[in-house]
Design goal:
This protein has 132 residues and is mainly alpha-helical. It has 4 helices and 3 strands; from the N terminus they run H-H-H-E-E-E-H. Helix content is 46%, strand content 9%. The structure holds zinc ion.
Length: 132
Amino acid sequence: MTPITPLEQALHTARALVLTDLAEGEVAEPDVVSMVEASVAERRWWVEQWPEGSEYVAGLIAQDVQDALLERHGRWPLCPVCGSGDPHALDVEPELGPDPQWVCHKAGVRVAALGSLGTATTGGPDEGFTSS
Ligand SMILES: [Zn+2]
């Protein structure tokens, strides 16, 4: 029995967030899931060398999967904000930091937190609620 370390927990969370967004884009196919697994395995090694990086793994795994998908399937995730023009993918920001977000550099907006793409495409902006 191996206890669940914070490192394993971070990797588990990262994997779940990326898979949630993949499912939203309807690309959570078996070969795509294995891309995520491959990235998680690679980042496990990386974060074992540098435990302070554990809060960065979610953003890094998302970027790994983006790169892998670009080669084999195409752009992911497509920007849900820009209705016209060339279809383009969202970017992870920060590239190396905690609390990764999907952003559209074209529109210059934050679209959703990693793992929350579903709420970005189906729901409207829930900001702007003011009370005086
Ligand atoms: Zn866009």
